[in-house]
Inverse folding.
């Protein structure tokens, strides 16, 4: 994904309860430092293009739009899948050849 280690990502608590908001404000500095967050904010709905996690019944969103180039990442994963598929096919062909030659048990 090539995200520099110094990159700070915002965290959005979506539809958070009053208790969660109070806890987030109380531990704001500590959580930001430990999780390498730019900011902790609150919203009714998760932002567009955000990864969403469900933590103790609360929706936590990490907006990755602009942090990860999704089209480049998809292309990288597709390339890896194609290479893996070719390796598996080549391995099957080699196994068949060994079997035909009587080299396989």
């Amino acid at each position: 994904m090539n995200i520099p280690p110094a990159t700070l990502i915002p965290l959005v608590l979506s539809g958070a309860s009053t208790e969660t908001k109070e806890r987030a404000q109380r531990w704001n500095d500590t959580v930001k430092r430990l999780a390498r967050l730019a900011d902790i904010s609150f919203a009714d709905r998760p932002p567009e293009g955000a990864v969403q996690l469900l933590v103790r019944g609360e929706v936590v969103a990490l907006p990755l739009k602009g942090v990860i180039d999704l089209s480049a990442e998809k292309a990288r994963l597709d390339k890896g899948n194609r290479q893996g598929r070719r390796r598996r096919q080549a391995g099957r062909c080699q196994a068949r050849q060994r079997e035909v030659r009587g080299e396989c048990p």
The radius of gyration is 23 Å. Strands lie at 9-14, 37-43, 50-55, 58-63. The first strand starts at residue 9 and ends at 14.
